[in-house]
Amino acid sequence: MGRIRRWTRSAALLVAAAGLGVAALPGTASAADTKLSIDAQATYYAYQYGEGPPGDGDLFLLSLNLSAPEGTKPLAKNVKLTIDATELEGKALITGDGGACSRSGYVYTCTYTSIDGLTSVQPFYIKGAKGVKAGASGDIHYTAVSSDAGTATATTHAIIGGPKLLTQREKKVTGVTPGGSFDITPAIANTGPLAAPQGIGVKLFGEEGLKVAEQYSNCRYRPMPQPTAYCTFDTPIEPGTAYTFDKPWHFTASDDLMYATVSYLTWPLGSGNPWQYDNPADYTITGSGPALGLKPVSASGFPDFGGFVEVSTTQRADYQALGGQVTGKVGQTVPVNLGVKNAGPGSMNLYSRPGHGSGVYRVTPPEGTVITKIPFPGEDDDHACGAPIKGTRTYECEISDTFAAGDTDQLTFYVRIQKAVAHPKAGSIEAIGRTDFPNRDDEPGNDSAPVTLKVTGAASSASPSPSPSDSASPGTGAGTGGSASTSGGSGSTGGASPQSGSMAATGTGGLLWIEAAAAAALGTGAVGIAMSRRRARR
Predict the structure, then answer these.
(1) Which of these three, 160, 187, 219, is where a domain ends?
(2) What pLDDT is attached to residue 321?
(3) From the centroid of its chain, how far is CA 94?
(4) SS3 category, 259
(5) Among residues 172, 299, 315, 447, which one has the fewest Cβ atoms lying within 10 Å of its Cβ?
(6) Rounded distance between C-alpha atoms, residue 138 and residue 268, angstroms
(7) Cα separation, 241 vs 262, whole angstroms
(8) Strand pairing category for 173-176 and 308-313
């Protein structure tokens, strides 16, 4: 179902895996000052039988928490949490024993020697029982008792079935001038069996380089680091109905922005926890204008995965090849830094989009030399680029996904001087942008630069002439230890070139990468980020 639970569930697992505790503050609170509490949503919509995740259903989630005076270290000892879902017997299937919990029928008991902050509890999986119609419901009761922080109670009303909120897949916004603006007016449909009786909430967020106008009084805004708005609408959303917003959201692009995405998520009010991964205190701005409203539209044309708008401007980025000189004696292996610079004025940010990197550069060593090693800056790892393109001595290296104006992306190439050649033919470095996300470089004259050879002194006796194995051997994909061509040139069209040994681009369209984009805010994509940081930035 298109509910807030869906987009927080996988991230909740990450929270559990990360240790669950909140960093302790100095000092010690007395038992009277520390209060135990339970964070559980008021309404929970469970999937009907045969819907949702395969297998046991959806992972149920609640949290134990503590409050204490500022500057103290909260601690609750000997905590016992009882979860009583007896009212759902015959209506829902509950499976699994989560963590510190034991089970007796539809009652779970979870024990903790102590807790020192927000503690995630994931006691079971839940889905509607076979044959149970949408709308069947029952309460889940919680009681938490500790030896020194009191007792806390809470209740969740669980409903089988519920609203299924789908968001429109928006048309691309193109041709935005640098520093220009654009409007979007998304739409939302309820294709589920039940209404969202209290209305809906919407979270809208863009990427760095966009600014959303803070114009609606029923929205709260966080301007940095990404423009984000939380808005609420008290219009009940009945099954089979759809709405668009009665006024547009207005965005302004920064002067250097080239590509961006605006995304939006929605949930039934009263269910889920929209602030689970945000701090409400960060949303310091309330819109100064009238309230944003909803108006009915046709409920057709809503895919299972929507809620995003791709944006591109007319800005350009001048990629400049950075050549160099190989200097040394015959037999020596010497380092030379080669790469590419983004001279702007546009900045490329293609993180979480299909494919890899924001282009490539191709390096051919000069005549009489061979490349033996290509480590990342400051590391000993080989093969930051792929194997030589078949039948050539040319290596292809991926430019980082995020390549801001003024940034330099360079690697150290170790080059062995095999022999002295009269008037050796220079090698080259060539910068190539992507065809699917072009950098619109209008200065092609600096896209290539020479890599020259200067032989000095007598031959070195310490380094024999290399055999074919002295060449850097194949990697496994640039950005992950090798090369992945997503640029134009040499038959490359956003995937792998059959002649370059490059890894195929992941993602087959807008669906997977935009899900990843939403997840990025929740902590995923760490590998891609780490690899980007390994690149030189000067």
Answers:
(1) 160
(2) 98
(3) 31
(4) strand
(5) 172
(6) 18
(7) 24
(8) parallel
Number of domains in the chain: 3
Q: Are residues 308 and 321 in the same domain?
A: no
34 and 182 housed in the same domain: no
Residues 125, 94: contact at Cβ < 8 Å? yes
Max mean pLDDT range (5-14, 49-58, 175-184): 175-184
Tell me the per-residue pLDDT of 271-285, one tens digit each, with 9 for 90 and over. Answer: 877 777 788 888 889
Examine residue 411 and state whether it is found in any structural domain, yes or no.
Answer: yes
Give the CATH number of the domain where residue 81 resides. Answer: 2.60.40
- Which residue matches tokens 């209740």? 155
Average pLDDT over the chain reads 80
Is residue 123 located within the same domain as residue 204?
no
Residue predicted with more confidence, 386 or 198: 198
Residues spanned by the domain of 309: 165-313
CA nearest 365: which of 383, 388, 390?
A: 388
Buried b (16+ CB within 10 A) or exposed e, 314-351: ebbbbbbbbbbebebbbbbbeebebbbbbbbebbbbbb
CATH code, 402: 2.60.40.690
Q: 177 vs 21, 182, 321, 434, CA distance in Å?
A: 46, 10, 27, 20
pLDDT band at 477; cut points 50, 70, 90: very low
Q: What is the DSSP letter of 434?
A: B
Percent of the chain residues past pLDDT 90, beyond the cut: 60
Neighbours of 426 (CB within 10 A): 17
